[in-house]
Design a protein that fits this description.
four-stranded antiparallel β-sheet; FG-GAP repeat protein; 25 strands; signal; 2 domains; Integrin_alpha_N; 284 residues; FG-GAP
Length: 284
């Protein structure tokens, strides 16, 4: 997982071990990652209960927090959301505070969850993809508001993403299909409008399909991580430009492949998390 947990403008790498307690942050200096530093002493981020975890600024203080979407269990039949805020404690140590409940309701989607700023207020919100509706759990900075229907139960054949592709500060719904990509721009009707065809070019990665702003123009672009190369389609704010080669070689992690602005220059970089190291492909 990635997010700017220290609030310095450079996104950091956050890891957890599903077989043990605690989580760790590899803080970015802008040119590399520092060694792992313990950021929590509890199993909140270990996913041992089927939880989905995100790193995002839930309280709009400039520091990314740990957001945990909990599935229903016998002891917690409604699931919900808990947040561990990024803080500097009384000893001057940067860490995640103890997690607190933000939502007591079912938001763990049948087809997973996404996290993005849906309403443009600077807080990270949670999206639940259900078989009957798309729900939003909006953050007001201190808690999660009652669940809101945000769109119909639609998904992309290859990928379902949420990011600000139009540059208005609000996350849009991006549906990557086998024969092109559609976008539902966020507006007063939320995501209930008919999807707009932004590209008829088949574009999805053999390894992973991601979205992020690679050129610092405020619009989230589409990234295809393939076996042999990395390609991008830049967003114009109303459509996607033709595909272009971004890296002529294989670049993906054995553990995960992520995108984030790790050097603080405003455009997203590509991160390959491997068993023994972390590599970064910087956007230029």
């Amino acid at each position: 997982m990635v997010g700017d947990v220290t609030g310095d403008g450079k996104e950091d790498l956050v890891t957890s071990n599903p077989n043990s307690y605690g989580c760790y942050a590899l803080e970015s200096t802008g040119s590399d990652f520092q060694g792992p530093q313990r950021w929590c002493d509890y199993p909140a981020l270990t996913s041992i209960y089927g939880d989905t975890n995100f790193i995002g600024d839930a309280d709009n203080d400039g520091r990314a927090d740990a957001i945990m979407v909990q599935r229903q269990t016998a002891s917690n039949p409604r699931g919900g959301i808990s947040v561990a805020r990024s803080i500097i404690d009384g000893y001057g140590r940067e860490r995640f505070a103890d997690s607190t409940p933000w939502l007591d309701n079912i938001i763990a989607g049948d087809y997973g969850n996404r996290a993005a700023d849906l309403d443009g207020d600077g807080d990270t919100d949670v999206i639940g993809l259900f078989d009957h509706i798309t729900l939003a759990a909006l953050s007001d900075g201190t808690t999660t508001l009652p669940l809101t229907g945000w769109g119909p139960p639609i998904r992309g054949e290859k990928a379902t993403l949420a990011a600000d592709a139009t540059g208005d500060g609000k996350a849009d719904f991006i549906l990557v299909d086998s024969n092109g990509t559609k976008v539902v721009p966020s507006n007063a009707n939320r995501w209930f409008d008919t999807p707009t065809q932004w590209s008829t070019t088949p574009f999805y990665g053999t390894r992973k399909t991601l979205t992020a702003d690679i050129d610092a123009d405020g619009n989230a672009d589409l990234i295809a991580v393939n076996d042999t190369d990395v390609q991008v389609m830049r967003s114009t704010g109303a459509g996607y430009a033709p595909p272009e080669l971004w890296y002529a070689g294989s670049f993906s992690g054995t553990r995960d492949t992520l995108t984030a602005d790790v050097d603080g220059d405003g455009d997203a970089d590509l991160i390959a998390a491997n068993d023994n190291n972390v590599q970064v492909l910087r956007s230029q």
